[in-house]
Write the structure tokens for this entry.
Amino acid sequence: MKKIIAIFFVIFLNTISANSQILPVKEQARVIDEVLSDRLNNLLPSLMEKNKIDMWVIVSREYNEDPIIRTMLPATWLSARRRTILVFYYNPQSKVYKKLAIARYNVGDAIEAQWDMTKFPDQWDALNDVIERYKPEKIALNTSKYFGQADGIDHTDYLELTQKLSNTNKAKVVSATDLGVAWLETRTPREMQFYPQLNKITHEIIAEGFSSKVITPGITTSDDLVWWFRQKVTDLGLTTWFHPSVNIQRNDQVEFDHLKAFSKNLKDQDNIIRAGDLLHVDFGISYLRLNTDVQEQAYVLGPNEKDAPEYLKKGLATANRLQDILTNNFKEKLTGNQILAAALAQAKKENINATIYTHPLGFHGHAAGPTIGMWDQQNGVIGSGDYPLYPNTAYSIELNAAVDIKEWNKAVRFMLEQNGYFDGNGFWYLDGRQKGLHLVGSWSSPE
């Protein structure tokens, strides 16, 4: 009886663990604002000095928010208010640092409103007054050719702002691309305290989805499983930044198709999950303004099986080796394209048929920073692939290895994606990585 109670207790804990880690909304807001204050007060001035920008002007209008300004608003601001203009000034010689809002209201507790509407009825005149007061050497605006997240100033605001500037100040306007990307990609020590927890929650949800609790072979479809993941996220009080996908590879004549695998709206003609199937999920969550992006695989046991076939386990091990090859090439200041080329060259030497499409992760799922391949661009990515790798940044190690499975008479893609962190000295996973296939079926041992 004690053993039965103990087993029940373990199952109960596993069931509630993900839910019990998630903070109430009020506590989430507290953490978000504390992290934001730390980033604005401690991280941003150092990034401005590093990127040689002494004034950063961010302009956004309500419901047409600049992607960067969204990361700077307090938790209770769900959008910008009317037109919100933020000005950050940092003098590296005097160490004078100012955070100003040319707006009607203070932007939370961190950024003080500086618009005297009685003196400057026109908001652009109020901005000009600040610029003339601090006389910056550069006026950085969010324009970017290769990073959409850093290209947030809209055409109207850009024209109205620059038309109001004097010729002298107009000549000081520069792109804030590098500063904007640095702000987005750099993870602080406080964020890295809880980022592993997001990945743990993600892994727990996937483990539950890839179980007999959710999947009934012969009945459950891949689409049923997709919507189970969406519902689970909602029930936990979380959100996701993309619609999940579940794909099936099996012993049949269907060949793997990258376009089909990466198109969320395309389904297998036969998407009923069956014994002997190799399942793949692409799933992530959004929590405390950070995101996860994880892909794992599962095997559906047959009635006489207690484990996945060795040939599938070896295929997964090959994909794990490809992960190692990639992350071993993470070296500071190498570009995404250089890392991609080195990893693919090493994989070729080891006879691994590799496709690498790894990307930064953080405030956005497909975040700003060095792109390390795309599934359809294995020779490098112009622009974002030329951006270098910097410390204190997070990545989604996304790739696949095509392994010839003679038992199935075709190549099978072992598609993996796990989230990790580069600290300048090396790369580590935020909550480990998948090294064994999830097992679906009554013959699997309880976790």
Remarks:
- Confidence is low (pLDDT under 50) at residues 1-18.
- The longest helix spans residues 25-50.
